[in-house]
Backbone:
């Protein structure tokens, strides 16, 4: 097979969730499959995180905007290499595709009613672009990959798609996320203590930042430890606006907000954290919860969407719409050492169910099915 893969953003320095899924899948396919030929299309960037091999060609395609890159430059490049299929990895795809199409649809949040608009202009434009493109490509997809059974059922029911068109393929986590001694040199680049709570948020409303900060303020009122909170991927002005809206400006001295955190530093930060908070309103999978568990850090996550499916029945699940539920869970772990130890052991066992190798094996099986049915 001649397989084309869209991995447009994997060379950018500041990668996020879908970028890592594409990158890790490509890396595993490169290791596992020596039989088929791959053409991986990327936008130029500074982080050359994957290189050519005998049967995998990394092709940089330049274009001034993402919509033009995907709708014009990508299909031209795919036609040029005479691919048997194109796998688009990040929710959208060319409306006019010259070959059979496989789409990874991580979620359909952008088609659902929103709690509020995005604070980021980039995220807001992406939301509108996905709403425009996705309904126009669904019936052209031979297979739609999504990342959990929850999301598969939701997509089929919401978009009235046949169940056989949509396949759940779990994400994995990188094995370098593992227990290690505290690396204070790395930790202190981001926060001035090595005993803290960790929240991986951004400006997306689904990350639930206002309620998490409200919960943290309640925690500070009741805790005797008063551990600081490390907040990733948020700028000070955004945090200030939430603190003012919630009337909790007094907690700011306890917050550390260094902005984007490089993936290579996350291992140290997960290991250093006392608890990891992953209390989103909505997730289709939740790789960070696996990464934290793999580092022997207890996770508090939400009882909504796919998070119970991934974290499992033994995880600490809370109602993300209730700040008091989040703060109570933090205090339970802080005040019950036996429960804390149980959650460490549970997480280390739970992550054994997930790997990028299995993600690649399942993805390759889908490629074979699509090409054989042409």
Residues:
């Amino acid at each position: 097979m001649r397989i084309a893969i869209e991995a447009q953003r994997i060379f950018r320095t500041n990668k996020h969730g879908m970028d890592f899924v594409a990158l890790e899948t490509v890396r595993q396919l490169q290791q596992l499959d020596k039989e088929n030929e791959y053409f991986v299309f990327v936008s130029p960037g500074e982080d050359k995180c994957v290189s050519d091999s005998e049967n995998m060609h990394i092709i940089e395609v330049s274009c001034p905007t993402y919509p033009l890159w995907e709708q014009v430059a990508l299909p031209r490049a795919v036609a040029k290499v005479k691919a048997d299929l194109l796998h688009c990895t990040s929710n959208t795809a060319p409306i006019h595709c010259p070959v059979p199409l496989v789409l990874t649809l991580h979620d359909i949040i952008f088609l659902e009613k929103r709690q509020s608009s995005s604070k980021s202009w980039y995220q807001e434009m992406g939301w509108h672009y996905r709403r425009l493109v996705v309904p126009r490509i669904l019936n052209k997809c031979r297979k739609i990959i999504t990342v959990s059974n929850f999301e598969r059922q939701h997509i089929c029911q919401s978009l009235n798609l046949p169940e056989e068109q949509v396949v759940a393929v779990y994400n994995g986590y990188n094995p370098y996320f593992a227990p290690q001694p505290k690396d204070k040199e790395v930790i202190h680049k981001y926060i001035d203590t090595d005993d803290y709570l960790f929240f991986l948020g951004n400006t997306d409303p689904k990350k639930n930042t206002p309620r998490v900060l409200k919960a943290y303020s309640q925690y500070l009122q009741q805790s005797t430890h008063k551990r600081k909170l490390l907040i990733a991927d948020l700028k000070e002005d955004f945090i200030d606006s939430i603190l003012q809206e919630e009337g909790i400006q007094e907690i700011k001295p306890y917050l550390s907000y260094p902005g984007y955190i490089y993936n290579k530093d996350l291992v140290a930060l997960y290991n250093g954290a006392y608890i990891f908070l992953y209390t989103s309103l909505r997730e289709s999978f939740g790789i960070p919860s696996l990464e934290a568990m793999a580092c022997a850090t207890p996770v508090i996550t939400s009882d909504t969407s796919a998070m119970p499916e991934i974290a499992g029945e033994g995880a600490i699940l809370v109602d993300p719409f209730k700040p008091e539920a989040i703060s109570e869970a933090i205090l339970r772990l802080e005040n019950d050492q036996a429960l804390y130890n149980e959650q460490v052991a549970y997480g280390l066992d739970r992550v054994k169910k997930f790997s990028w190798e299995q993600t690649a094996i399942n993805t390759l099986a889908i490629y074979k099915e699509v090409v054989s049915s042409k």
